[in-house]
Amino acid sequence: MELGLKGRGVIVAASSQGMGRAAAELFAREGAQVAMCARTEKTLQEAASQIRSETGAEIYAEPLDVTDGPAVQRFVEQVSKRFGRLDVCVTNAGGPPAKNFLSVSADEWRKAVDLNFLSVVHLAKAVIPYMQRHRWGRIITITSISVKQPIDDLVMSNAVRAAVVGLVKSLSNEFGKDGILVNNVAPGYTATERLQELAGTRALAAGVPIEQIYQRWAAETPVKRLADPKEVADVILWLASERASYITGQTLLVDGGIYRGL
Fold first, then answer.
1. Helix (H, G, I), strand (E, B), or coil: what is residue 185?
2. What DSSP state is assigned to residue 193?
3. Which residues contact 51 (CB under 8 A, 6 or more apart)?
């Protein structure tokens, strides 16, 4: 299937590992120019080098803290200068720690808002003017199934990521006239480093092996397994493509059917 992504300028945030890395690789395989960013330079450069070697694509990688608004603006400007255009932005960031409500401090709430909400604001504000110039753009946020179905012990993620969905809908309404489509991808239990951390926390609290937690999650999912990050990345690519040209303001669940609502 021709996705129309060849030559597109693409930013994928938090792309040194997990779903972000998988998305960056798939964009590169489609012939896009890909800008990768993450906080840890070593793992970022290693991921960029491997993708560059395997795909032959143009990859630009720079360490970035997506909670730093001015730094995000500078990064986007550099990417635009290098690629000549910006067409797709995939916003992504690690989730806040697993805690129950009464144990969360006010400072932890502020950090969660900075990481999972304001990072999207920073990236969107920086890339939209470039997309408006060409009257074509795709902004895709990665959140979690928690925006539809709260997850136990993830109260910060449950609350803050839901705000991202409100932002996605608002941006889709405001910028649809400019040819900019804004959508959200909400993964279920996916085999990433983030899920490993959560499984460790759950296993420690329950006094059981971590493998038992993974087995429990798989059993709760109708397809009886966890997702591979590339399965989420496939959906991101489709939403970024010409094949999804009439879809905006939506949250697409990639959850193996675990969401119980209609």
1. strand
2. H
3. 21, 24, 25, 28, 34, 36, 57, 59
CA 103 from centre of chain? 27
Scan for tokens 């709760």, then name that residue. Answer: 220
| Residue 202: pLDDT over 90 | no
Beta strands across the sheet bearing 88-91: 59-63, 33-38, 9-12, 88-91, 137-142, 180-187, 251-254
Phi, psi of 38 (to 5 degrees): -170, 170
Q: Measuring CA to CA, how many Å separate 172 from each of 13, 34, 146, 167?
A: 20, 23, 21, 8
- Picking from 14, 23, 64, the residue whose alpha carbon sits closest to that of residue 240 is 23
pLDDT tens-digit map of 42-85: 999 999 999 999 999 999 999 999 999 999 999 999 999 999 99
| Those residues with Cβ within 8 angstroms of residue 129's Cβ, 6 or more apart along the chain or in another chain | none
- C-alpha distances in Å from residue 207, one per residue of 193, 213, 235: 21, 10, 36
Percent of the chain whose predicted confidence (pLDDT) is above 70:
100
Alpha-carbon Rg for the chain, nearest whole angstrom, is: 18
**Contacts (Cβ under 8 Å, ≥6 apart) of 48:** 24, 36, 59, 60, 61
In angstroms, rounded to a whole number, what is the distance separating the alpha carbons of residues 33 and 8? Answer: 6
Residues contacting 208, CB < 8 A, separation 6+: none
